[in-house]
């Protein structure tokens, strides 16, 4: 549900702006408001499940997300849709880490590896498939349908949670209010300094001050919202940094590639979404095999191979020109990227929560999702800024993708230098 709504914003921007008479600035805030609350509340959402019970917090997230989706679908003007997207982002910030923590609670051993593999695979499969679904809604029905559909799904999931999830009362302890406030406003200021449209530097400085206070507090607090012991493990550090860089490339790629397909190859939003099929199909097939491949080759080796393959595909795509056309310039590189993506996101998720105890499962899941969200936001900004430096849209696209390829290379180095040695130990 979370990934679907992001993709609808990507593919339906023109129709959303037309229906609601949004200016370019207002349209950008449809995404930015969601990013602000999603990134800001992630650590709180992850830790709340540890303290107050995963099922209870998961259900609260479903209610907020479902209601927020309904309000977005009913929006009639800019303030309504921006406010509803911000509210929806709070629900996402609760659901994203809590679902992963529930899987860690529910499964053990090989079953846990397989469950986490499927969870990680959804990040890639969902983002790719959702571009197609978003294009379908935007072109054939209405962009509102992509948000309305979340309402019955949320109700159904709430019922399933009552029926199947065990009632976990959480661990004893109190919420770290200083850590909560500084992390909340520090993350909001950080995301705003990336996606905002005015006074970015003051917000970046505010984010730095608040996050420094947050880290100092976490080292002293008896009940930290983000236990610093999560960063004592070399494998987890490698996973956090590697995922940050990897998602920075992939979100930028998902954002600018549909535009180049529409503007340079003349595809409609629907056809641009369908144009991701090579990546989507291969990603789906590979991701379903990750659990078996992990058992055979190990998580770290699979991850190194996956990030390296993604780098190769992204480098190939950086040579796209309209004369190369869709098949040679986009579809074939997408096949390689799809293999790499299918092999990467699940192992990154597994490494990000490796060697954690159940008491910290929610906090560790929150950090994984923070790196996913913040890395994506920063990477998207970098790639878009790089693209805008060139008058030629094609040259801009080529250089933006090359920057993404460099980030993938750095992600691969994180795996080789941090995760593989830790995995051997």
Description:
The protein has 425 residues and is mostly helical. The chain folds into two domains: 2-165 and 225-419, Growth Hormone, Chain: A, CATH 1.20.1250.20; 176-224. It has helices spanning 2-11, 13-20, 24-52, 54-74, 78-106, 109-140, 145-148, 150-164, 177-195, 200-220, 234-265, 269-274, 277-287, 290-297, 299-317, 325-352, 361-388, 393-424.
CATH T-level topology of the largest domain = Growth Hormone, Chain: A
CATH architecture of the largest domain: Up-down Bundle
Structurally, the number of domains stands at 2
Beta-strand percent range: under 5%
Shape: globular
Give the key terms.
single chain, 425 residues, mainly alpha, Growth Hormone, Chain: A, 2 domains, 83% helix, 0% strand, globular
Short synopsis of the structure:
The chain is an all-alpha fold and 425 residues long. Helix content is 83%, strand content 0%. It has 2 domains: 2-165 and 225-419, MFS general substrate transporter like domains (Growth Hormone, Chain: A, Up-down Bundle); 176-224.
Write the SSE topology.
Blueprint: H1 2-11, H2 13-20, H3 24-52, H4 54-74, H5 78-106, H6 109-140, H7 145-148, H8 150-164, H9 177-195, H10 200-220, H11 234-265, H12 269-274, H13 277-287, H14 290-297, H15 299-317, H16 325-352, H17 361-388, H18 393-424
Keywords: Cell membrane, Membrane, Transmembrane, Transmembrane helix, Transport
Subcellular location: Cell membrane
GO molecular function, one term: transmembrane transporter activity
């Amino acid at each position: 549900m979370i990934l679907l709504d992001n993709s609808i914003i990507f593919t339906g921007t023109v129709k959303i702006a037309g229906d609601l008479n949004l200016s370019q600035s207002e349209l950008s805030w449809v995404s930015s408001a969601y990013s602000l609350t999603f990134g800001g509340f992630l650590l709180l959402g992850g830790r709340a499940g540890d303290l107050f019970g995963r099922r209870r917090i998961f259900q609260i997230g479903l209610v907020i997300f479902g209601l927020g989706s309904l309000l977005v679908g009913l929006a009639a003007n800019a303030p309504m849709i921006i406010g509803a997207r911000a509210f929806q982002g709070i629900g996402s910030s609760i659901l994203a880490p809590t679902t992963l923590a529930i899987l860690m609670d529910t499964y053990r051993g090989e079953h846990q590896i397989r469950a986490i593999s499927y969870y990680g695979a959804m990040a890639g499969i969902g983002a790719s498939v959702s571009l197609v679904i978003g294009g379908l809604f935007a072109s054939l029905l209405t962009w509102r349908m992509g948000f309305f559909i979340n309402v019955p799904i949320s109700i159904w999931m709430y019922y399933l949670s009552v029926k199947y999830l065990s009632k976990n009362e959480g661990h004893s302890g109190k919420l770290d209010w200083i850590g909560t406030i500084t992390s909340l406003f520090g993350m909001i200021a950080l995301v705003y300094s990336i996606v905002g449209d005015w006074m970015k530097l003051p917000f970046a400085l505010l984010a730095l001050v608040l996050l420094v206070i947050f880290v100092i507090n976490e080292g002293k607090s008896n009940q930290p919202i983000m236990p610093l012991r999560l960063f004592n493990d070399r494998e987890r550090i490698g996973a956090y940094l590697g995922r940050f860089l990897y998602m920075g490339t992939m979100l930028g790629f998902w954002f600018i590639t549909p535009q180049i397909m529409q503007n340079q190859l003349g595809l409609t939003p629907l056809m641009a979404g369908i144009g991701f099929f090579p990546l989507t199909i291969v990603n789906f097939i590979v991701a379903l095999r990750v659990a078996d491949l992990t058992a055979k080759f190990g998580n770290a080796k699979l991850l190194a191979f996956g990030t390296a393959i993604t780098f190769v595909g992204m480098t190939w795509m950086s040579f796209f020109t309209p004369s190369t056309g869709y098949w040679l310039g986009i579809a074939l590189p997408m096949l390689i990227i799809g293999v790499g993506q299918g092999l990467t996101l699940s192992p990154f998720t597994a490494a990000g929560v490796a060697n954690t105890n159940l008491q910290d499962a929610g906090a560790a899941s929150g950090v994984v999702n923070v790196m996913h969200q913040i890395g994506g936001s920063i990477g998207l900004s970098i790639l878009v800024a790089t693209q805008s430096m060139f008058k030629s849209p094609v040259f801009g696209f080529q250089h933006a993708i090359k920057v993404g390829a460099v980030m993938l290379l750095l992600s691969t180095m994180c795996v080789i230098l941090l995760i593989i040695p830790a995995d051997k130990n």
